[in-house]
Design a protein that fits this description.
Structural class: alpha/beta
Oligomer: single chain
Number of strands: 10
Radius of gyration: 18 Å
Strand order of the largest sheet: 5-6-2-7-1-8-9-10
Number of helices: 10
CATH superfamily: P-loop containing nucleotide triphosphate hydrolases
CATH architecture: 3-Layer(aba) Sandwich
Helix content: 25-40%
CATH topology: Rossmann fold
Largest sheet: 8 strands, mixed
Bound molecules: adenosine-5'-diphosphate, magnesium ion
Number of domains: 1
Shape: globular
Length: about 260
């Protein structure tokens, strides 16, 4: 299962990507979470907090040809093996590196290493049966689908607002033009009920795979910088994301 989570900024991509990753790991999958957002999000939602270290900087060097190359002995497989970090429930997290006070410049090498790694993932035999879940940032990077070459499915997270739906429609069209072989799966987040889900589904002409209710536990977890799975595990959002995991896992499709 290889998917990328896309949607407007603030729609809930990081919360859903992280909770889904951990839920699938609890179900016995080996899971690689990919964070290509230079702003913090996924690591908090997974429950590993923020890291100052940018491990992927050790995977790459800029040579005399002015181009970035993996250091000797490192390729996509080793980059994941050595430079992904442990997250709860056994999830492994590979991060692009976060912007610093100096912007992206200090971590630019890491973004090259990340890019080269994700473009080599298909060739990594040891990851063949892993679940790969990418959390894509909103904006032009995500729109250039070059940042999710591994994705067979795009999990489109949409808030039931007018702006949220309009942005989602653009994303649907972008996937159709750049990645026509990929599937778009619709998740309506911060839903207040069936009417929200029906409205979004009708607008986008897509079936709603899962609605995730608005849940104060998610906001409270966010304020505490913790994972909702640790902070409000019994709330309705976690329950809905667990149903989503079941659906994606195939065992209960149509149930
Ligand atoms: N189901 C939900 N109920 C309530 N708040 C939510 C829900 N999902 C996400 N949020 C809140 O919305 C905000 C954006 O979520 P986040 O996952 O960071 O979005 P994105 O990664 O798409 O920018 C966060 O403050 C988060 O706590
Ligand atoms: Mg995010």
């Amino acid at each position: 299962m290889r998917l990328a989570v896309v949607g407007k900024g603030g729609a809930g991509k990081s919360v859903i990507a992280a909770t889904l990753a951990r839920t699938l790991a609890r179900r016995g999958h080996r899971v690689l979470a990919l964070d290509s957002d230079p702003l913090p999000g996924l690591s908090y939602s997974l429950g590993v907090g923020e890291q100052d270290d940018v491990p992927l900087l050790r995977a790459i060097e800029r040579r005399e040809d002015k181009r970035w190359h993996f250091v000797r002995g490192v390729g996509p497989a080793r980059a994941v093996q050595r430079f992904a970090v442990d997250a709860p429930d056994g999830v492994r997290l590979l991060q692009i590196g976060k912007t610093t006070r100096e912007g992206m410049a200090p971590v630019i090498g890491a973004s090259h290493a990340f890019f080269k790694t994700i473009h080599g993932l298909d060739r990594v035999a040891s990851l063949r049966d892993w679940v790969v879940i990418g959390d894509l940032p909103a904006g032009p990077r995500q729109i250039a689908f070059e940042w999710a070459p591994y994705a067979e499915r795009f999990l489109l997270v949409v808030e039931p607002t007018w702006q949220g739906m309009l942005t989602a429609r653009r994303i649907v069209r972008l996937v159709a033009s750049y990645r026509s072989e990929a599937e778009v799966l619709l998740v309506v987040n911060k839903s207040t009920g069936a009417a929200d889900e029906e409205r979004v589904g009708a607008f986008l002409e897509l079936e709603v795979l899962q609605g995730v209710p608005v849940d104060d536990g998610v906001r409270a977890a966010e304020r505490a910088g913790a994972a909702v799975l640790d902070f409000a595990p019994d709330g309705p959002a976690v329950a809905a994301i667990e149903r989503l995991a079941l659906r994606l896992d195939g065992s209960t499709v149509g149930a």
